[in-house]
Design a protein that fits this description.
This protein has helices at 3-21, 41-51, and strands at residues 26-33, 61-65, 69-73, 79-82, 97-101, 105-112. By secondary structure, it is of the alpha+beta class. It has one domain: hypothetical protein PF0899 fold, CATH 3.30.2320.80. The mean pLDDT is 93.
Length: 113
C-alpha cells in the first residue's frame, strides 16, 4: 500500500510549508489526485488520519479532488475528459484515445489556524 509512503511525504511537505510560514496548526488540506494515479482516496484518507496523529495536521480535514482523465481522440481529434481509461470518446465513440493527463497528485491548498 503505497498510500502510506505518499502520506508520509505529504506530511513532511506540510511540516516544511508550515515552518516556512510560521504556522502551528493545519486545519484543512486539499489534494488533487488524478484518476490514473493508482492511489485509492479512502486508503489515503485512512493513512492520513492515522499518520497525522501527533503532528500539526492531527485535526486537519483532508479533501480530495478527483479530476477527469484528459485525452485526445485519434478518431475525431476531440479533446475529451474521461472517468475511466476504458471509456470511449464521447464525441464519436472511438476507443483510440491518447491519454494526455490523469496520473498527477498535487497539493492544492492548506489552511492553517
Amino acid at each position: 500500500m503505497h498510500e502510506l509512503s505518499v502520506c508520509e511525504h505529504l506530511l513532511n511537505l506540510l511540516d516544511q510549508e508550515a515552518a516556512r510560514h510560521g504556522v502551528n496548526k493545519i486545519t484543512r488540506v486539499r489534494l488533487e489526485i488524478s484518476r490514473l494515479s493508482c492511489l485509492e482516496p479512502n486508503a489515503l484518507r485512512f493513512a492520513f488520519d492515522t499518520m497525522a496523529i501527533g503532528t500539526i495536521a492531527e485535526t486537519a480535514e483532508l479533501q480530495i479532488d478527483r479530476p477527469p482523465i484528459r485525452a485526445t481522440c485519434k478518431g475525431c481529434g476531440a479533446a475529451v475528459k474521461l472517468d475511466s481509461r476504458l471509456d470511449a470518446c464521447p464525441s464519436c465513440g472511438s476507443t483510440r484515445l491518447e491519454i494526455r493527463g490523469g496520473e498527477e497528485m498535487r497539493l492544492l491548498e492548506m489552511e492553517a489556524a
